[in-house]
Amino acid sequence: MDNGDTSRIDDETLEYMNHFYTNSYGNPVSLHSLGMEADENLAEARRIIAGTINAEPEEIIFTSGATESNNMAINGIAEYLKNKGNHILISSVEHSSVKAVAHRLKNDGYKIDEIIVDSEGFIDIEDFISKIKVTTILVSVIYANYEIGTIQNIEEIGSICRERNIIFHTDAAQAYGKIKIDVKKENIDLMTFNAHKNHGPKGVGALYIRKGIKLRKLMEGGAHEFNLRPGTENIPALMGFARSAEIAQRDFEANNKILISLRDKLTDGLLKIDHVTFNGPKGTNISKRLPHNVDITFHYIEGEAILMHLSLRGICVSSGSACSSKTLEPSHILTAIGLKHEQAHGSIRFTLSKFNTEEEIDEVIKNVTEVVQILRSMSSFVPEEHSELISKNAKTFYKNKKAGE
Question: Does 265 lie in the same domain as 220?
Answer without folding.
Answer: no
